[in-house]
Amino acid sequence: MRMSKLYLPTLKETPAEAEITSHQLMLRAGMMRKLSPGIFSYLPLGYKVIKKIENIVREEMDKTSSQEVLLPVMQTADIWKESNRWQKFGPLMIKFKDRKDHEYCLGPTHEEVITSLIKDEVRSYKDLPLNLYQIQTKVRDEIRPRFGLMRGREFIMKDAYSMDVDYEGLDQSYQEMYDAYTKIFDRLGLETRVVQADTGAMGGKDSHEFMVIADSGEDDIAICDSCDYAANTELATALNKDVSSDQNHKQKEIIDTPNVTTIEGLEHFLDTDGSKMIKTMLMKADDELVVVLLRGDDKLNEVKLTNYLQATNLEAATEDEIVEVFGVRPGFIGPVDISDEYKLLADNRIKYMNNSICGANIVDKHFVNVNYGRDFEVDEFLDLRTVKPGDICPDCESGSLEIQPGIEVGHIFKLGTKYSESMGATYLDENGREQDIVMGSYGIGITRIVAAAVEQSNDDYGIIWPKAIAPYKVIILPLGKNDEVKETSEEIYNTLQDRGIEVLLDDRNERAGVKFNDADLIGIPLRITVGSRSLENNVLELKNRQTGQDYEISLDNYENEISDFLSKLK
RNA sequence: CGGGCUGUAGCGCAGUUUGGUAGCGCACUUGCUUUGGGAGCAAGGGGUCCUCGGUUCAAAUCCGAGCAGCCCGACCA
After folding, report:
1. What pLDDT sits at residue A217?
2. SS3 of A160, please?
3. A402-428, pLDDT tens digit by residue?
4. pTM assigned to the model
5. pLDDT at residue A306, rounded to an integer
6. N or C: at which end does chain A have fewer Cβ atoms within 10 angstroms?
7. What is the three-class DSSP state of A503?
8. What is the spatial distance, in angstroms and rounded to an integer, between the CA atom of A148 and the C1' atom of B26?
9. C-beta separation of A151 from A408 below 8 A
10. Considering only CA atoms, which of A540, A401, A399, A554 is closest in space to residue A477?
11. Whole-angstrom Cα distance, residue A147 to residue A404?
12. CA A564 – CA A250 distance, rounded (Å)
């Protein structure tokens, strides 16, 4: 491609709208432009990268038993009502009506469509297993789209759906996808980490996420420093040990704590730390009020609580509701002598606490030396806390957990029979009995991968593409107006093109500095500089964008030298 | 949905406190010079100052309402 013809509006200055590196660089490198928050147009360079990623994904998917299809973006409400997700997905879906007043949504995902598609045709165990995938635009009305392509309202996703006769078959399909994903991310040049994950709104059993470790990641993952354990903190657990030294239950006392309404406040006021306190919270799960107890220095894991309660929506109770339950405003609430009409759940760690501090349900008062069993009861102990750095690994029981931010680029689920059951997707087994199809679903965020790749690989000058997804492999910079420079550049350009190498020729009438800077910004892996200086010595100058190293090669045998060079690039 | 910040040329911003003909840098157009890391000089083009309403002789500036964008939060009692 000749850059004089390429629609490549690069920017010198960073647009104010972009906060994180990948977003800034993609705008500056002329890869995309925003139409509305989370909705982007992809320009030639950006779209080229997207297509590269799609092709690698497609190639690896086609090597599995999965077949490519294309499902509708516009979906009818009835299939969502069948699966009971019309309400559950709720505001995340863009819903609208047609002229006949029929309800539709723009597909945020395609479990419903795929299930309704196959349920009429798949009648026999002989039709299974079946695995279908598509690469397509998804629409989700995210609460807060942000970070450019990281969390968009419209984005491209590869989604695959497996259908098996039983769970054994599902396990195999799942493993096949797992292996394919590993290959895909490897080929994309992305460093990913596989972690155990929550199934969220998709429902189902096992689930793994493929994470790119990056500071800008929106997820936190817990990684054991001595074994393979890695999990999204949404579900990561830690080994709880009974570490309390003080087993004697002291006399409960009430103390004055004027205006001390927070854990930190109590830490200062009593010169102690949060691990000695019981934090009492009132949560509202789909209109049911639930009292939750945690150690003072722990954080509630909402996902764990939501899953346990099988709630759709979980939020903090209002101040009025707190007064209603505890008879006192927030800041002094506690589990002692409260009404048993509300469910009281406690994190497992509460079991190991002795002589704790908690609110007294009286303004400006707290209790000290409060003990479970004697001073308060709970309905159930369960794991409700979010793991913290330094926690003990639940698998090897010796390593310690680190927390790292990650970008979720792939997610695989064992759905089981959730959708087939609700939507009646069944088959007849060998005995002529009707059975539910066992499903799995497998997603890869194509556009998010672009952002993740940039996050993972860039420097002060711009993007540094891995070879596999670079929009072009080589960029030729003719410097100056010298005819020989022009002719030589054209010749190299044509030769490389003939060899099937994707190459950019910067034939723009720009100064050297502009060309160098744009080449760096758009991140082409190999740069060839052609100038009168180098031609005098009968050489070409090469620069490896990934390592920053410069090389000189002879003009006589450049085709092979460049091919060699490219084959060594990452 | 709550909080904070912002809205002035394609981009980055000043001007708003104290009302008085709308500015700077980059980009763009033309000419000359220049040409190995975002050139210099000169001449130009481009604005509903987010919108609507109000105050005033006069509003980018003051007041009111709305809209949009960005960031943080949406459990830490």
Report:
1. 86
2. strand
3. 999 899 999 999 999 988 999 999 999
4. 0.92
5. 85
6. C
7. strand
8. 24
9. no
10. A540
11. 18
12. 77
Q: Strand B nucleotides below 7 A of a protein CB?
A: 1, 11-13, 25-27, 34-39, 68-77
Minimum-distance nucleotide, CA of A521 to C1': B38
Q: How far is the CA of A35 from the C1' of B53 (A)?
A: 30
**Residues A92-111, mean pLDDT to the nearest whole number:** 92
Tokens 């199934």 belong to residue: A199
The 3-state secondary structure of A10-68 reads CCCCCCCCCCCHHHHHHHHCCCEEEEECCEEEECHHHHHHHHHHHHHHHHHHHHCCCEE
In Å, what is the separation between the CA of A24 and the C1' of B15?
28
Amino acid in the structure at residue A372: Y
| Cα–Cα distance, A330 to A393 (Å, whole number) | 34
For the segment A220-246, what is each residue's pLDDT rounded down to a tens digit?
Answer: 999 999 999 999 998 899 988 766 556
> pLDDT per residue over A168-195, tens digit each?
999 999 999 999 999 999 999 999 999 9
Q: In this predicted structure, what is the pLDDT of residue A339?
A: 83
Which nucleotide is nearest to A462 if distance is taken from CA to C1'? B38
Is the four-CA dihedral A314, A316, A319, A322 of positive or negative sign?
positive
- Determine which helix (DSSP H) or strand (DSSP E) holds A156, and give its type and residue range: strand A154-164
Give strand letter and number of the nucleotide nearest A519 (CA to C1'): B37
pLDDT of residue A324: 86
A310-319's contacts with Cβ under 8 Å and 24+ in sequence apart are A311/A285, A311/A286, A312/A87, A312/A88, A312/A90, A312/A286, A313/A285, A313/A286, A314/A283, A314/A284, A314/A285, A314/A286, A315/A283, A315/A284, A316/A281, A316/A282, A316/A283, A316/A284, A317/A282, A317/A283, A317/A284, A317/A289, A318/A284
Q: What is the pLDDT of residue A202?
A: 57
Position A116 pLDDT exceeds 60:
yes
- Tokens for A134, please give them: 């598509």
What is the distance in angstroms measured between the alpha-carbon CA of A562 and the sugar C1' of B71? 46
Q: A142: which nucleotide lies closest, measuring CA to C1'?
A: B1
How do residues A271-280 score in pLDDT, each as one tens digit? 888 889 999 9
Nucleotide nearest to A531 (CA to C1'): B36
* Separation of A39 CA and B7 C1' (Å): 20
